[in-house]
Design goal:
Distance between the termini: 38 Å
Number of strands: 39
Shape: elongated
Structural class: mainly beta
Strand content: 35-45%
Radius of gyration: 25 Å
Number of domains: 2
Helix content: under 10%
Largest sheet: 26 strands, mixed
Length: 456
């Protein structure tokens, strides 16, 4: 039988002259240690079907097409002319803009080079250089296997994928990249519902600051309302030096054993997407968070699983999960067995209506909070409580754990070393209650349910 050791209600009149702070209600329940709680299930996507791709023996249809503004509304020109980068890209063309269009079937880079050497040039060292726009059609596949492909940004080299892109045992990169300088820079853009498979490869130096050209991009297909999500699988690879390492929208993503390092504006950005991210590292993001997951209003549920990974030395937070513009996207998130260390802001920052489990992580020497969590909405108190179980906090500068506004969560089995346990409501108004109630409960490793509500 559930035994409540203590149930305490506090009404904090936090009004200071000139500050206008309103009242806040805090409920703290020290619960029976035998209580069990469900966890968010693991998430995975069905494997991308690579049959028929590896050999590329399907007699592909490949043509060179000029690009005219008068055809901007027709396939496949709509994916070029209305994408926000056409005018910038066309300025790099030495003559009338044209593209190499893979209309149907599977083709490899070596096949393209043998047939269209003015677009794909084979270099003396056996590697290849793309000069211009390569468009993969809806019914087509491109294979980049066991080779090195340079995207020549001086000629406006781009890969735009509407079908299937496979990169294995290869390096795709930009030499003398402009990713840091925010000028035009070659990139790879995949429109929903394309498939992208990357294994044991390097992606380096792609992207710049303008829309849909940030690096390795999976973009929502606004040209078709029934396009469905893209699927992305990355394994055993390194993504480095991009403007944004990886940017995905309305996609299904599975990443494992991959390193994201030295990217400029965030290493991973996910919008309205479901993702499994495991056994990977996100390091040294130059000007942003390591990973950012954002959601807007939608009726489609999403799931984020981040496990057994390291987020370190990023200039923002290690991991951020937010709702944009007051969105109420139905999201569940499992953050488990990760290490968040020496990030310039928080280890983890969550500002979202979300079913959240944070279990077995290490939060070490982050310059903000180890974990900061709040919803910004009274709806949070009606959701399943977030679970913060068996985490280890050491040396985080602002505090180990911070929460404010509306939130509801259960603490159990966490370890706090050399950090201040700080539930910050309007500038830290709950420090007294933390000292008197929460620390003894945590030292006894008993579950503690905390409900916080209030108004600005």
């Amino acid at each position: 039988m559930k035994n409540f050791i203590a149930s305490m209600f506090f009404f904090c009149g936090l009004f200071f002259a000139g500050l206008g702070l309103a009242s806040n209600l805090v409920t703290v329940e020290v619960m029976d240690d035998s209580t069990t709680y469900g966890e968010v299930n693991d998430f995975s996507i069905s494997p991308i079907d690579l049959s028929g791709i590896q050999k590329c023996d399907s007699n592909p249809i490949v043509v060179v097409k000029p690009i005219f503004s008068s055809e901007s509304g027709s396939y496949p020109y709509e994916y070029i002319s209305k994408s926000g980068y056409f005018s910038i890209w066309s300025a790099h063309q030495k003559s009338h803009p044209k593209m190499l269009f893979v209309d149907k079937g599977c083709v490899s880079i070596s096949d393209l080079s043998s047939r269209f050497s003015s677009f794909v040039r084979k270099k003396n060292d056996g590697s290849y250089q793309l000069e211009g726009l390569l468009l993969i059609g809806r019914n087509a596949s491109l294979l980049i296997d066991n080779t090195s492909l340079l995207l020549d940004n001086t000629s406006g080299a781009l890969i735009v994928n509407l079908g299937s892109l496979t990169i294995t045992d290869s390096k795709v990169y930009v030499k003398d990249s402009n990713a840091i300088n925010e000028k035009f820079n070659s990139f790879i853009l995949n429109w929903n519902p394309s498939d992208v498979y990357i294994k044991d490869s390097q992606i380096h130096g792609l992207g710049s600051s303008f829309k849909n050209g940030a690096g390795l991009v999976l973009s929502e297909n606004k040209h078709s309302h029934d396009s469905g999500p893209s699927r992305l699988q990355i394994s055993g690879s390194v993504i480095s030096g991009n403007y944004v390492g990886l940017s995905v929208s309305s996609s299904l993503v599975q990443i494992d054993s991959t390193v994201f390092e030295n990217n400029k504006k965030h290493s991973v950005v996910s919008r309205n997407s479901s993702m499994s991210f495991a056994d990977s590292r996100v390091l040294n993001t130059i000007d942003g968070a390591g990973m950012v997951c954002r959601f807007t209003s939608s009726n489609v549920p999403a799931q984020i699983n981040v496990s057994s990974s390291i987020f370190s030395y990023n200039s923002g937070s290690g991991f951020e999960l937010t709702n944009e513009e007051g969105g109420s996207f139905p999201v569940s998130a499992l953050i488990k067995d990760n290490t968040f260390v020496a990030n310039e802001k928080n280890g983890v920052y969550v500002n979202s209506l979300v079913e959240l489990n944070v279990i077995g992580n290490k939060f070490l020497s982050n310059k903000g909070h180890g974990l900061e969590f709040f919803s910004g909405s009274s709806e949070q108190v009606r959701l399943k409580p977030a679970l913060f179980f068996d985490n280890y906090f050491l040396g985080n500068t602002a505090s180990a754990l911070s929460s404010k506004k509306y939130s509801r969560f259960i603490l159990r089995g966490n370890t706090f070393k050399s950090s201040t346990l700080s539930f910050k409501v309007f500038g830290g108004g709950l420090r007294f209650y933390q000292d008197e109630i929460l620390k003894p409960a945590i030292s006894a490793r008993a579950p503690v349910l905390v409900t916080m509500s209030g108004k600005k």
